[in-house]
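I am still getting used to backbone structure tokens and would like to learn alongside you. Label the sequence line and the structure token line clearly, so we can match residues to local backbone shapes. Go ahead whenever you are ready, and we will take it from there:
>
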Amino acid sequence: MRTLSCFIVEDSPVIRDNLIETLEEMVPVRVCGTAESESDALDALRRQSPQPDLVIIDIFLKAGSGLGVLQQARQHRYGRHLVVLSNYATPEMRRRCAELGADRVFDKSSELEELIGYCETLGA
């Protein structure tokens, strides 16, 4: 199983740190960067070389929106796989994220194991 490079867009330090710890412990993932806002995420992703294998994006950020990150990341091919991880994974939000180019959408509160499983399949 190969190690995936992962960029995380999440404004909560507690959630971000726990997510990094969980992913790096459970699957072969190396977090190559993080951002708390839409503009910081897009600036950092623009400078990433090579582009990360996986970008995990929260919808509600400190400034801007994860939807903007998702749309620009898909348009400019920042990251091979784009995933949304949100507490607001309603059917409407899942549809909107898919329209903007999300490969998958996971609910933070109930689908973390599914996210881990998805990462395992990417690294296989």
Q: What stands out?
A: The chain has one domain: 4-123. The CA atoms of residues 51 and 114 lie 24 Å apart. The chain is about 45% helix and 20% strand. The chain has a mean pLDDT of 96.
